[in-house]
Design a protein that fits this description.
Layout: H1 11-22, E1 35-41, H2 47-56, H3 73-79, H4 97-109, E2 112-116, H5 124-127, E3 134-140, H6 143-153, H7 159-180, E4 184-188, H8 189-194, H9 196-207, H10 213-222
Parallel strand pairs: 1-2, 1-3, 3-4
Helix pairs in contact: 2-10, 3-4, 6-7, 9-10
Length: 234
C-alpha cells in the first residue's frame, strides 16, 4: 500500500501523496536519434493548433500546410478501421494491421515525424510495438470549454454527457501515458494562446527540432490569441 492508499491521509494531504507517487512515472529526456511525436488530447481541445504549429516548424505530420485539422487522414482512418475515403457510415473493424503498416512506412520515410489524433487512446497501447522512440504531447484545455464545444456540435448529447466524455478521455490518456512512461509534454491550450512564442520554444525543444527563423515566425503567427488558429501561409 502506497501513501495515496493510506486511510489516514485525506483531503489535500491525500492529493499531495498521490502527486508524489505519480511524479516519476513520466520521464522527460533530451531527444536524440529517430523518434515519433504523437499529439493527443480531447477533441475540440487544442490538438489541431499544436499539430499546425509542428507543421509550421517543419515536422512531417502527414497533413498539408493548408489543412484545417492537421490530421494524417490515412493514419486516423486506419485507427478507426476504415479507409480514408470511406463515408461516415462505413463499418469499423478491430484489425490494426493497416495502421501498423502505415506507421512502418512513415518510419522508413522519416527519421523524425509525427501525427495527431484525439482518438489515439483507443489504439496506442496495441500498436506501440511499431513506434520508434515515441514522445507524446498531451494537450489539455478547460474541460467546461471542451464540453461546450462538443455539445454545440453534437446536439444529441447533453452538456453533462459531454463533460463526462471529456473527463473520461482525459483520464484514459493520463493512465495510458503513465503506464507506458513515454516522454510527455503536458501543454495547456489556454496558456499557449496567451504566449505563442513560449509554445513554439517548448515544442521545438521537446521534439528536438531545428527550425529556420522563418519557420519559427510562421509558427508563432499561426496561433491566434483571440481563439482558434490561422491557416498557415496567411
Amino acid at each position: 500500500m502506497g501513501p495515496a492508499d493510506d486511510p489516514d491521509v485525506d483531503g489535500e494531504n491525500r492529493f499531495s501523496a498521490m502527486a508524489r507517487v505519480a511524479r516519476p512515472i513520466i520521464r522527460i529526456e533530451a531527444p536524440a536519434g529517430r523518434r515519433t511525436v504523437i499529439v493527443v488530447g480531447n477533441g475540440r481541445g487544442g490538438t489541431s493548433m499544436v499539430a499546425g504549429v509542428l507543421v509550421a516548424l517543419g515536422l512531417p505530420m502527414g497533413a498539408p500546410g493548408n489543412a484545417l485539422n492537421y490530421e494524417d487522414a490515412e493514419i486516423v482512418a486506419a485507427g478507426r478501421g476504415t479507409p480514408p475515403d470511406a463515408g461516415s457510415d462505413a463499418p469499423s473493424g478491430d484489425g490494426l494491421d493497416p495502421l501498423r503498416a502505415l506507421i512502418r512506412e512513415r518510419n522508413a520515410r522519416h527519421d523524425v515525424w509525427g501525427w495527431k489524433d484525439p482518438s489515439a487512446d483507443l489504439y496506442l497501447d496495441r500498436i506501440k510495438d511499431v513506434l520508434v522512440a515515441p514522445r507524446a504531447i498531451f494537450v489539455h484545455r478547460d474541460l467546461a470549454s471542451v464540453a461546450e464545444s462538443m455539445f454545440v456540435r453534437s446536439p444529441d448529447i447533453s452538456i453533462e454527457q459531454a463533460l463526462l466524455l471529456a473527463l473520461e478521455r482525459t483520464t484514459r490518456y493520463w493512465e495510458l501515458l503513465s503506464r507506458n512512461g513515454w516522454p510527455t509534454l503536458l501543454l495547456s491550450y489556454e496558456r499557449a494562446r496567451i504566449a505563442p512564442d513560449r509554445l513554439v520554444a517548448e515544442l521545438t525543444a521537446f521534439c528536438g527540432l531545428a527550425p529556420t527563423e522563418g519557420e519559427v515566425g510562421r509558427a508563432v503567427r499561426f496561433v491566434s490569441g483571440t481563439g482558434g488558429y490561422r491557416l498557415l501561409g496567411r
